[in-house]
Structure formats: structure tokens, C-alpha cells
């Protein structure tokens, strides 16, 4: 299906996020642009400090933006918005956080942690109805309803992350921002959580913004992937296209860092180190260019010609 035929759920236009003021001013996100279509998983990948989590938190309205627009279902949700729209955003956009240990209140029982969101978006529910929804949310993520009476410290990392997913799902959101949801988990648990997220998407038609630093995970979970480096989105393409034909040197360096399953191939592979000084943007600044079908790269004219040879 062509992009023009798909329903746009979220659009980010020239987004800027700045921390600090004066001499300590630091631009964490620099004029980011992308569109997320309803029902897809959009991957945002980059190393630590690249600005990917900042974008997720700006969409959630956890941190303010300093420029640009975030449009959700055609309505701008960054900056000052009406109380009605704010309530809509809280209900329809949820976040799964990176660390399942620190993101859960250790002094609260699971029933309160999972059901807390319902108190804001569904105040009409009786305690019994809320309890039933908590029970169903736990079942949906593969946990026993009896776990509702326990505390987070009684669970493993994978179980705690499932509690976090249940907390996000219970308000029946249309859009979920998953911020490195598996990075704190053991390898054996990661596949379980990824499969759970995919199953819930197929079942409920949820749209994901999936944030991670690992391109091999992104290839498995994402429909399209955007690569971000120090606040700049440098490449965007369909997942398989990006893995098969990486163009930007930073994307190639990320791919070269993926461990090989074979020890012999791992020893023989070449690790690419990205050096930003290779770009000469003083006289010929970069622009967003389509170099292959549905494959966009941040580069200048000279680089576009060189990379397409």
C-alpha cells in the first residue's frame, strides 16, 4: 500500500528540543521530521545520547519542545493545548519505560500500579469493574490475576516489564511509545516480550513508536526505521531496505556492531567507526534526499552522488 493511502496517526514536523539556557544551551533534537501510520511499528534507533528518548518524551508531553510541531490525528499536541485534548492524549498515548524496576512504585501493589490510569480516564468505573479490568490486563500480558495483590519486588525483570505493559494497555491506547523496553532484560526474556508486543498489536491494532539502540531488534519488530545521530535523523527507510542497503556512514557503523551468530564470522568482521568529520557541510549543507525507493538520507549533493555510485 502506498504511503498516501495510509492513515497518518502521528506527524513530527521540524521538531526541536533544547535543554538549558545561555552558554549551557544544548539542542538535543534538531529539526526532526517523520510520520507514523496507523497500525505500524515505527523504529527510532541510535546510540545513547542521540535524542531518541527525548523525542518519545516530547510526544508524551513529559518534556517541553522548543520548536516545530507534533500532530496527533491532525491536532497539535505540543505547547499549550486545551484540557480536553490533554485528557485525550493521556488516554490514547501511553509509554512503556526502559527500566521495569525503577518505573514501578515499589510500595504499591500491582493492582494499584496497573489500575491507576483508569482512575483518571474512566472515573465512572466502580471498584469491582476496575478490579476486573486489572485482572484482564494481567491475563492479556501472560500474568496470573493473583499477582495483583503482590508488590513489584516479588517479580523477575521480565514479569515487571509485563506489568509495565499491562499498565499501558489497560486504558486501551491507540499509540504506545516503547522506550528500550527490552534492554534491561535477559536474552531469553527479550524474545518473549517482543512476541507479546507483536501479538497485542495484531490483536488490537495498536501503533508503536519503538525506541532502541540495537538494529537487529529493530529489524524484527519494525515496519520502518529512522536512524538518529546527535539530534539529527540521518536515514529513514523500510526495515528490510535499511538493513540490506544502508547508505549513511552512521547507519553502516551501527550495523557493523551487531554481533554475528558464528564465532568465526564475528572474529573476521570489520567494525566500522563513524567519523562526523568526513562530512563537509560548511559550504554545501545537507538536505533530506530520497536516494532509493522510500529510502531517505540526510546528505548534500556531493554525498548523494558519491553514495549512489
Written description of the protein model:
It is a single chain. This protein is of the alpha/beta class and 309 residues long. Helix content is 35%, strand content 25%. It has helices spanning 52-59, 83-92, 110-121, 127-140, 157-169, 187-204, 215-221, 239-244, 249-256, 263-268, 301-307, and strands spanning 8-19, 26-37, 41-45, 67-72, 75-76, 93-96, 175-179, 207-212, 224-229, 232-238, 287-292, 295-299. The strands form two sheets. It has an eight-stranded mixed sheet with strand order 6-7-8-3-9-10-12-11, sandwiched between helices. Helix 3 (110-121) packs across helix 4. The longest helix is centred in the middle third of the chain and has 18 residues, at 187-204. The protein is globular, with a radius of gyration of 21 Å.
In short:
With 309 residues, the chain is an alpha/beta fold. It is built from eleven helices and twelve strands.
Which descriptors would you attach to this protein?
8-stranded mixed beta sheet; 309 residues; Rossmann fold; alpha/beta
Task: Give the secondary structure arrangement, pairings included.
Elements: E1 8-19, E2 26-37, E3 41-45, H1 52-59, E4 67-72, E5 75-76, H2 83-92, E6 93-96, H3 110-121, H4 127-140, H5 157-169, E7 175-179, H6 187-204, E8 207-212, H7 215-221, E9 224-229, E10 232-238, H8 239-244, H9 249-256, H10 263-268, E11 287-292, E12 295-299, H11 301-307
Parallel strand pairs: 3-8, 3-9, 6-7, 7-8
Antiparallel strand pairs: 1-2, 1-4, 4-5, 9-10, 10-12, 11-12
Number of strands: 12
Query: Count of helices?
Result: 11
Broad shape: globular
Mean pLDDT: 90
Q: What is the percentage of strand-forming residues?
A: 15-25%
Would you tell me the structural class of the helices and strands? Answer: alpha/beta
Oligomeric state of this protein: single chain
What is the H level of CATH, i.e. the homologous superfamily?
P-loop containing nucleotide triphosphate hydrolases
How many structural domains?
1
Helix content: 25-40%
Question: What is the terminal-to-terminal distance?
Answer: 29 Å
Strand arrangement across the biggest beta sheet? 6-7-8-3-9-10-12-11
Radius of gyration: 21 Å
* Low-confidence runs of at least 5 consecutive residues: none
Amino acid at each position: 500500500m502506498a504511503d498516501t493511502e495510509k492513515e497518518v496517526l502521528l506527524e513530527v514536523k521540524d521538531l526541536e528540543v533544547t535543554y538549558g539556557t545561555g552558554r549551557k544551551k544544548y539542542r538535543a533534537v534538531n529539526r526532526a521530521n517523520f510520520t507514523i501510520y496507523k497500525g505500524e511499528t515505527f523504529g527510532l534507533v541510535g546510540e545513547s545520547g542521540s535524542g531518541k528518548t527525548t523525542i518519545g518524551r516530547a510526544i508524551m508531553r513529559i518534556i517541553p519542545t522548543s520548536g516545530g510541531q507534533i500532530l496527533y490525528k491532525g491536532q497539535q499536541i505540543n505547547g499549550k493545548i486545551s484540557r480536553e485534548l490533554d485528557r485525550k492524549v493521556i488516554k490514547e498515548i501511553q509509554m512503556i519505560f526502559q527500566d521495569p524496576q525503577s518505573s514501578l512504585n515499589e510500595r504499591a501493589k500491582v493492582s494499584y500500579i496497573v489500575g491507576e490510569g483508569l482512575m483518571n480516564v474512566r472515573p465512572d468505573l466502580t471498584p469491582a469493574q476496575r478490579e476486573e479490568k486489572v485482572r484482564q490486563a494481567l491475563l492479556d500480558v501472560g500474568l496470573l490475576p493473583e499477582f495483583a495483590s503482590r508488590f513489584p519486588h516479588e517479580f523477575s525483570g521480565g514479569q515487571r516489564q509485563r506489568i509495565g505493559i499491562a499498565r499501558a494497555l489497560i486504558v486501551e491506547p491507540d499509540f504506545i511509545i516503547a522506550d528500550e523496553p527490552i534492554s534491561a532484560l535477559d536474552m531469553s526474556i527479550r524474545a518473549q516480550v517482543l512476541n507479546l508486543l507483536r501479538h497485542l498489536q495484531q490483536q488490537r491494532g495498536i501503533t508503536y513508536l519503538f525506541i532502541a539502540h540495537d538494529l537487529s531488534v529493530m529489524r524484527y519488530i519494525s515496519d520502518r526505521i529512522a536512524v538518529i545521530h546527535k539530534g539529527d535523523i540521518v536515514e529513514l527507510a523500510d526495515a528490510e531496505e535499511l538493513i540490506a542497503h544502508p547508505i549513511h556512514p552512521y547507519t553502516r557503523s551501527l550495523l557493523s556492531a551487531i554481533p554475528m551468530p558464528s564465532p568465526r564470522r564475528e572474529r573476521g568482521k570489520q567494525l566500522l567507526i563513524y567519523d562526523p568529520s568526513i562530512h563537509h557541510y560548511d559550504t554545501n549543507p545537507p538536505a533530506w534526499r530520497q536516494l532509493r525507493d522510500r529510502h531517505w538520507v540526510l546528505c548534500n549533493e556531493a554525498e548523494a552522488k558519491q553514495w549512489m555510485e
